[in-house]
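Structure tokens please, single chain.
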Amino acid sequence: MAEADRLAVASGVCLAELMENAGRAVALAMTSRWPAQAVLVLCGPGNNGGDGFVAARHLADAGWSVRVALLGSREDLGGAARDNADRWAGPVAKLAPEALAGNTLVVDALFGAGLNRPLDGAARATLAEAAAQRLPIVAVDVPSGLQGDTGADLGAVCCALTVTFFRKKPGHLLLPGRDLCGELVVADIGTPESVLSRIAPDTYENDPRLWQPELPFAGAQGNKYTRGHAVIVGGYPMTGAARMAARAAARAGAGLTTVAVAAVALPIYAAALTSIMVRPLSAAGDFDALIADARMTGFLIGPGAGAGEETRARTLAMLATGRAVLVDADALTAFQGRAPTLFRAIRGPCVFTPHEGEFQRLFSFAGDKLSRAREAAAMSGAIIVLKGSDTVIAAPDGRAIINANAPATLATAGSGDVLGGIVLGLLAQGMDAFLAAAAGVWLHGAAAALFGPGLLAEDLPDLLPRVLRELSRT
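Here you go.
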């Protein structure tokens, strides 16, 4: 975003104009949400503080009672920020918790997204006191103390509203940043759209516009065989995970879905599944014969499979086919201490879907979630879906997508198995692995949002048709 500002100025947009538009956008967002009242604008020593002075001026012009508290002195300000401080006709108090007295709303224009050290001193004390008094806080760009590129909390407090400019930053979507921002508004401040092609961003927010053109929908001339055949290795005695994954794969559009299970488990699976085929693995060569069949277009192994030698061997055999493979749950854990063997076996489209615990069993990276997912994808050669409320989908080439539509109700047993099944259904139909993973994660969240409180994982597959139907209309 710093480069976007630089390129905007280089293209002929002056910094003063960008600052004026930013401060006006903050004031407009506030006046459209709250009635006129006493507001304290906290201004920092950089351009973020300049935005705050502009917002203060526009709020005062709208009839609000406005006071400004400044961190440092006017002499510390430079350029457009100093010019806007000089245009402010009201008093400027020293930043301190005492300045909050008599105000019912606070604007945090102290530090922007570039802060890379913990918030301290008067800034931290004042914001902490505002939070203690439960005063609504409006953040300019990001809440001060929130790291814009990682979402890390360096002393920020929860805000009611955050107004940012041109595009969201990763910290607006990654946790805990997303929760700290409150309502998020992205304002157009005159940055030319053409700067995006110059910057060439490789991080995106998950949205159907990224993958909807590639989403497979049944055509009039298609049949169940042209829509792909998804295969799931079913576990025993943990049978529920694979059954939910199988139903999700079918609901996601796979023309045929087969669960391959130990013979002892066949009655359980067969009784619970109707349109899903169940294939017993009775003899030693049955599994090899199954995956050798070229009509099988996508494989999933892991849910309920067990983390032993048999799961490792089957995972490697699936990968050797060069067809699409999703490795999840126990199949990831099975390679703890053997990760290079797993990585070297990848021959075709491959997706790993670990939660944080499973991720740590394969990768020892430290750092923020976005960086870790990227590094894991580059190392393994697989698409990494690092799950959570802020799931990150990363590709080996460095592209990454952050998902933000997952409701808290997805924190329930089996929801990850359903996610694996959705992605498998898309992979089996030939969808690009990176886009299939992103689409599956979004569809998973959208289905959960439709259901609301009381969600069970087994509810999710039957909600997919409604989500897909709505997408087909757009």
